[in-house]
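Hey, I'm writing a tutorial for new members on how sequence and structure tokens pair up, and I'd like a real worked example in the thread rather than a made-up one. If someone can provide the structure for the chain below, I'll link this post from the tutorial.
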Amino acid sequence: MDKKRKTIFTIIAIIAVMAIGLWGVDVEQGYYMVSDITADPQEHLGQKVNTMGIVKNGTLSISPEMTTFTLADAEDENYEINVEYSADLPANLAEGKSISLTGTMVSETMIDAEQIVMGCPSKYSE
């Protein structure tokens, strides 16, 4: 095989590996703050959303069938949205903790979460 064919083959192989590696990665949608979602809930209704915030104190309810809580905006706790989640819980889910989630906006005040990821604890917290 001559040098030109080897170069073309290598480029095609690299593109194929990149396409396979990025398969299923949603690069279009970033994370919204709770305040962004609640400012115009109609825009997100029925859509999949990624958001982050803090589990509001006094709202976490865990039962075998469903976990519910209110997610407050990390920057302004006056903005909040209710969350329902029925999959396996992260081990350290607790009130006052920072989380990010992916789910569907089922009403103007409710997200049906599909995935919850806990925020990393700070090694400098007391």
